[in-house]
Amino acid sequence: MSALGTPPRVLTVAGSDSGGGAGIQADLKTMLALGVHGMSVVTAVTAQNSQGVQGAWELPVEAVRAQYRSVVDDIGVQAVKTGMLASAELVETVAELLAGTGAPVVVDPVGVSKHGDPLLAASALDSVRTKLLPVATVATPNLDEVAQLTGVRVESEEQLRDAAAAVLAYGPRWALIKGGHLPGAAVDLLTDGREEHWLRAPRYDNRHTHGTGCTLASAIAAQLAKGSPVPEAVAAAKRYVTGAIAAGFALGAGIGPVDHGWDLSRGTAGA
């Protein structure tokens, strides 16, 4: 926080989750917990709850561009996080806006929801590869998204390197390959193609993990906005999301969310 009391500013460009566990709602909760000012550009509206996505409606490109310019031109940003972008036209518009902003960008290449519902048109995949990933400071795909974008299928920890190389080939400075779908401990690989950082955490017996990807990407953006180098930002974000998963709670009849405020009572979230 500056001497004037203004916290670092982070912008999320993503879809709304009406159930509050993922998307814009998760992003803003994460940013609050980590001590930054969260701002939002809504790209799509979903009807969503603990059991799945019942409907999704993308916003017009003009509305997305106007939201972005309104925030960035007046308030400014220290980091940007992207999530659900829905269509090729939105992906390309957002990529163009990001390229002219000059702040670190965390790209969560959202393809499907936790429940398996599609959140990105198949026709948009090439735009993600050729327009969005090249402007990313950090790309954070899970294993399903790696397969969707690159064709590389990971079935063991050793193959995370192959996945990272395939993602880095599209131009992000760093790739964080999330190995949460593998058996055993929750292991992720962060690399820029030269140095490697293996991030490990215990796997909790907790099915309430809705919003983990959004939360992790937003936590990375928050740490980057506070001035942390990428490896330190990702490590801190991993600690924060691990605690949020451990504290995840039941909500509705399906998969509940992680607890974004799990560490607020101690005032040390993400430290």
Automatic annotation (TrEMBL):
<keyword id="KW-0418">Kinase</keyword>
<dbReference type="InterPro" id="IPR013749">
    <property type="entry name" value="PM/HMP-P_kinase-1"/>
</dbReference>
<comment type="pathway">
    <text>Cofactor biosynthesis; thiamine diphosphate biosynthesis; 4-amino-2-methyl-5-diphosphomethylpyrimidine from 5-amino-1-(5-phospho-D-ribosyl)imidazole: step 3/3.</text>
</comment>
<dbReference type="GO" id="GO:0009229">
    <property type="term" value="P:thiamine diphosphate biosynthetic process"/>
</dbReference>
<keyword id="KW-0547">Nucleotide-binding</keyword>
<keyword id="KW-0784">Thiamine biosynthesis</keyword>
<dbReference type="GO" id="GO:0008972">
    <property type="term" value="F:phosphomethylpyrimidine kinase activity"/>
</dbReference>
<dbReference type="GO" id="GO:0005829">
    <property type="term" value="C:cytosol"/>
</dbReference>
<feature type="domain" description="Pyridoxamine kinase/Phosphomethylpyrimidine kinase">
    <location>
        <begin position="17"/>
        <end position="259"/>
    </location>
</feature>
<dbReference type="GO" id="GO:0009228">
    <property type="term" value="P:thiamine biosynthetic process"/>
</dbReference>
<protein>
    <submittedName>
        <fullName>Bifunctional hydroxymethylpyrimidine kinase/phosphomethylpyrimidine kinase</fullName>
        <ecNumber>2.7.1.49</ecNumber>
        <ecNumber>2.7.4.7</ecNumber>
    </submittedName>
</protein>
<dbReference type="InterPro" id="IPR004399">
    <property type="entry name" value="HMP/HMP-P_kinase_dom"/>
</dbReference>
<dbReference type="GO" id="GO:0005524">
    <property type="term" value="F:ATP binding"/>
</dbReference>
<dbReference type="InterPro" id="IPR029056">
    <property type="entry name" value="Ribokinase-like"/>
</dbReference>
<keyword id="KW-0067">ATP-binding</keyword>
<comment type="function">
    <text>Catalyzes the phosphorylation of hydroxymethylpyrimidine phosphate (HMP-P) to HMP-PP, and of HMP to HMP-P.</text>
</comment>
<dbReference type="GO" id="GO:0008902">
    <property type="term" value="F:hydroxymethylpyrimidine kinase activity"/>
</dbReference>
<keyword id="KW-0808">Transferase</keyword>
<dbReference type="Pfam" id="PF08543">
    <property type="entry name" value="Phos_pyr_kin"/>
</dbReference>
